[in-house]
């Protein structure tokens, strides 16, 4: 009975986290950039949403780590059920505390990204960090897929 509760909690947290990442990354962010005229305002709004998503990760992922460990010691022989959320949490902490903070500092220095020349070193660094931010976001989503397989199919 306790195993079913941990499986339920784990699957709910995984579904909330993954569903939110898909919704923000593939529906909300493109819609915001299409509808808001100012690219700077749209970027600020999406950045705020991604910060809220990180907070969601700080809540759901530790719950997944604990419940995943309980599932692992009781039934499953696949440690990835615990390590997957831990890796995702580390990536979110890194992205939020290093990449996003540095991007915020660069945005303040540039005042407006759209008027800063593309040759400007700050804008180049911002674009480089943005690419890494997107890659880490995608890696987090991809790491959720084997977790779904372990929980629901295996």
What can be said about this structure in brief?
The protein has one domain (2-153).
The 3D shape can be described as elongated
Order of helices and strands: HHHH
**Rg calc:** 18 Å
Number of domains: 1
Q: Uncertain segments of ≥5 residues (pLDDT<50)? A: none
| Main β sheet profile | none
Number of helices: 4
Search tags:
154 residues, 4 helices, mainly alpha
Helix/strand layout:
Layout lengths: L1 H34 L3 H36 L5 H31 L10 H33 L1
Helix pairs in contact: 1-2, 1-4, 2-3, 3-4
Give an account of the 3D structure.
The protein is an all-alpha fold and 154 residues long. It has one domain (2-153). Helix content is 87%, strand content 0%. It has four helices and no strands. It has helices spanning 2-35, 39-74, 80-110, 121-153. This is DUF4149 domain-containing protein. Keywords: Membrane, Transmembrane, Transmembrane helix. The chain crosses the membrane at residues 6-33, 53-73, 79-99, 132-152. It is found in: Membrane.
């Amino acid at each position: 009975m306790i195993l079913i509760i941990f499986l339920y909690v784990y699957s709910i947290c995984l579904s909330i986290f993954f569903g939110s990442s898909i919704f923000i990354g593939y529906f909300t962010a493109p819609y915001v950039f299409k509808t808001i005229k100012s690219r700077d305002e749209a970027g600020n709004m999406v950045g705020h949403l991604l910060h809220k998503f990180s907070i969601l990760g700080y809540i759901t992922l530790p719950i997944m780590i604990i419940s995943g460990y309980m599932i692992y010691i009781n039934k499953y022989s696949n440690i990835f059920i615990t390590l997957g959320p831990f890796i995702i949490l580390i990536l979110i902490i890194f992205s939020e505390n290093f990449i996003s903070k540095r991007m915020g500092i660069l945005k303040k220095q540039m005042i407006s990204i759209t008027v800063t020349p593309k040759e400007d070193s700050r804008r180049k660094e911002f674009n480089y960090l943005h690419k890494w931010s997107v890659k880490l976001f995608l890696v987090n989503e991809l790491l959720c897929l084997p977790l779904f397989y372990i929980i629901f199919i295996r």
